[in-house]
Design a protein that fits this description.
The structure is a single chain. The chain is α/β, with parallel strands linked by helices and 331 residues long. The protein has two domains: 2-121 and 294-324, Medium-chain alcohol dehydrogenases, catalytic domain (Quinone Oxidoreductase, Chain A, domain 1, Alpha-Beta Complex); 124-265, Quinone Oxidoreductase, Chain A, domain 1. The chain is 30% helix and 25% strand. The protein is built from eleven helices and 15 strands. The protein has helices at 41-46, 115-119, 122-135, 152-163, 175-183, 197-204, 219-226, 250-255, 265-271, 273-288, 305-313; strands spanning 2-5, 16-19, 29-39, 64-72, 84-87, 98-102, 106-108, 143-146, 167-172, 188-191, 210-215, 229-237, 259-262, 296-301, 320-324. Strands 3, 4, 5, 6, 7, 14 and 15 form a seven-stranded mixed beta sheet that branches. Helix 7 links the parallel strand 11 and strand 12 (229-237). The chain is globular and about 60 Å long. Bound molecules: NADP nicotinamide-adenine-dinucleotide phosphate. The site of NADP nicotinamide-adenine-dinucleotide phosphate has 28 residues, from helix 1, helix 3 and helix 4.
Length: 331
């Protein structure tokens, strides 16, 4: 089979596309013949050695994808060969024609969902649903501020929060990105490159602040988001796409009675397999019912994974970027 491989920490375009050993399914695993993979910001980190997981070289990046089960390991009863599935390898492996993966992070795809849609579904929607429902316990009528709102996870937070009955303020860096957020249901928008985030939140909320902040951006933007919380509000720590951890003063957490809630989808899935499966099934039901509509703004062939990662890492992406694997030349 062929795979996009990282032989040493490198820039996206230094990844190589070459032959790799065929895979076998270990106990509790399936081998998936991959049809498509989703590109995530974290792919740009893992190939530079800046992610929390550091797989041994050579490794194939890729945190999510979709395909058809071609082999079952021992003690796998919930799937059969030929099943259409989406997968979330914890660290890497999806940018390849084959992936061996634990069944804990493998979920069935509804017949209505195409592979390229499924490929970018579980990390984005899975993260936002877990964050909003399980961590923040967002309720109908509450106000949510989403930072990086047109990005992969951000746009799903906008969409799911609307489906949960919240009022959504979407914050992003360009008018085009904000227009996309409005299309996905945002009630209000803030361009944080041209407007003062805190002042605009005050204006929109009549000086109250928001109930919940969803922050995949971090750094100064994340801090401004935290300062926009109402007393007793909840701050969801999703990620640090801007490259820095927001320096939230602990005394402010005390004074504002805030809750700072860490969100780590992969770790939570491993510790809560049944609850994670329930969440993924519910998200698939929302998809089938037409209540969520994954936005894929660019598709690249597997061979051009480096360009696709660069597209995401350089702040150009709206929604998801997906790699087509089915069309890649076979080994
Ligand atoms: N905790 C978890 O379980 C979990 C799960 C998935 C992802 N994440 C994390 O969430 C973050 C976003 O992931 P993603 O895949 O959704 O990424 P993405 O699609 O690239 O979205 C990130 C957004 O951050 C904003 N941003 C601000 N400064 C940026 C910069 N210097 N470089 C790049 N983007 C910048 C961009 O929006 P504007 O241009 O509008 O500012 C961009 O749309 C990452 O840190 C990722 O590791 C965490």
């Amino acid at each position: 089979m062929k795979a996009v491989l990282c032989h040493e920490y490198c820039a996206p375009r230094e990844l190589v596309y070459e032959g790799a050993p065929r895979l076998t399914a270990q106990r509790g695993q399936v081998v998936v013949s991959m049809k498509a993979a989703g590109v995530n910001f974290a792919d740009s980190l893992i190939i530079q050695g800046k992610y929390q997981f550091k797989p041994p070289f050579p490794f194939s990046p890729g945190l999510e994808g979709a395909g058809i089960i071609q082999a079952l390991g021992s003690q796998v009863s919930q799937f059969k060969e030929g099943d259409r599935v989406m997968v979330h390898p914890m660290a890497a492996g999806a940018f390849a024609q084959e992936l061996a993966i634990d069944t804990a992070t493998t979920w069935a795809i509804p017949p209505q969902m195409e592979f390229h849609t499924a490929a970018g579904f579980c990390v984005t929607y899975g993260t936002s649903y877990h964050a909003l429902k399980d961590r923040a316990q967002l309720t109908s009528g509450e106000t949510l501020l989403v930072l990086g709102a047109a990005g992969g996870v951000g746009l799903t937070a906008v969409e799911l929060a609307k489906a949960m009955g919240a009022k959504v303020i979407a914050a992003a860096s360009t008018p085009e990105k904000l227009a996309l957020c409005t299309k996905y249901g945002a009630d209000e928008t803030i361009n944080y490159t041209t407007e003062d985030l805190r002042e605009r939140v005050k204006e929109i909320t009549g000086g109250q602040g928001v109930d919940v902040v969803y922050d995949p951006v971090g750094a100064e933007t994340g801090l401004a988001g935290f300062r926009s919380l109402r007393p007793g509000g909840r701050f969801l720590v999703i990620g640090f796409a801007a490259g820095g951890v927001p320096a939230i003063p602990v005394n402010l957490i005390l004074i504002k009675r805030s809750s700072v809630l860490g969100v780590f989808l992969g770790d939570w899935i491993i510790a809560n397999e049944d609850a994670a499966r329930d969440n993924m099934e519910e998200l698939c039901r929302l998809y089938v019912a037409g209540r969520i509509d994954p936005h894929i703004s660019a598709r690249y062939p597997l061979q051009r994974a480096g360009e696709a990662i660069e597209h995401v890492a350089t702040r150009k992406v709206e929604g998801k970027v997906v790699l087509d694997i089915e069309s890649a030349e076979s080994a």
